[in-house]
Amino acid sequence: MRIAIVTDAWAPQVNGVVRTLGAVRAELQAMGHHVAILAPDAHASVPCPTYPEIRLAVLRPGALGRRLAATAPHAIHIATEGPLGLAARRWCIARRLPFTTAYHTQFPDYVSARTRIPAAWIWRYVRWFHAPAAAVLASTPGVEASLNAHGLPRVRRWGRGVDLDLFTPDGPVDAVIAALPRPIHLYVGRVAIEKNLHAFLATPTTGSQVVVGDGPARAALEQRFPHAHFLGSRFGAALAAAYRSADVFVFPSRTDTFGLVMIEALACGTPVAALPVTGPLDLIGPHYGALDEDLSVAILRALPCDRQACAAYGRSFSWRRSAQEFLDALVPLGNACRAA
To answer: Where is the Glycosyltransferase subfamily 4-like N-terminal domain (predicted)?
Structure first.
């Protein structure tokens, strides 16, 4: 198949959407499909308000439609609700072409955290955006239930995966992290307001708190929590080593729909402590970590979890299976696109 994926999130951004689309594209291409990514890098762009690291495409009339038509796709997937997603949605609707969308982030909560706009108002936009889709792809049963409750019934499951060659319990540890006083409490991800990172750093714990990642809130959090160790970003083998070095992985976010970092940590044998919200509720059972509104309680309960059991569970997540679920959810255009 020739598959067109339209996304406002793409490299050099570092986030779960970009990592998911990149991994799934690689699997689809290995399966013999052609995947065209239509991203902001082909357009002029401006920094996103309150989040300058994200660039928002500035589109000339018809520009995205011409790019889409040039790919001659057999199926179209719209990954994000930004300017490119809006343009692709408009183009498809005008030509009566079916398309799928995805709900990657708790978008209403995410926007509300950054702008103080009530989340209920943002849900109106989310319903409007996704309503014409032939299917809305959701990562977990909890996300599916949330979308159903907000008036979006056509939901298909699209799980996530782990790089099983990279994230393993066997391998080197991070020398800097391993030398810190234990137990070591690790966070990996964007250092931004919507990740609720202050809830982790304000939690009274023994041992060491380690933050791997970067983002706009880093300077303020480093100043506010001088006891924490901010190590910047880690990728590839260095990231796997960081996971292996920790005694517990702490996931304080309330806005993620899945949380790739949780299953990567688990695949490396590290149990997870998180809040009982969408994402962790669907992923973390009592053998692999703990959930509690009090993160200090969740951490204490997660620390004794068996690391071998965590690793075995983490390795049950496959990018090949994720790619197949994505493929199964696509709606072929048939002859409609050529007629358009």
So the answer is: 14-165
Supply 273's token pair.
């402590």
- Picking from 97, 93, 90, the residue whose alpha carbon sits closest to that of residue 62 is 90
The enclosing H or E element of 102 equals strand 100-102
* Amino acid at site 134: A
Q: Which fold has domain 2-161+320-339?
A: Rossmann fold (3.40.50)
3-state helix vs strand vs coil in the chain, percent to 5:
40, 20, 40
Residue 58: count other Cβ atoms within 10 Å of its Cβ. 12
Helices 16-30 & 319-329, crossing angle to 10 degrees? 80
Query: What digits encode the pLDDT tens for the residues 217-252?
Result: 999 999 999 999 999 999 999 999 999 999 999 999
Radius of gyration of the chain (CA): 20
| Cα 159 to Cα 139: distance, rounded to the nearest angstrom | 5
Mean pLDDT of the chain: 93
Look up residue 218 and give its two tokens: 């880093």
Q: What percent of the chain has pLDDT over 70?
A: 96
Hey, which CATH number is domain 175-317, 3.30.1330.60, 3.40.50.2000, 3.30.200.20, 1.20.1250.20?
A: 3.40.50.2000
pTM value > 0.85: yes
Rounded CA-CA distance 214/167 in Å is 21
Give the pLDDT of residue 335.
Answer: 53
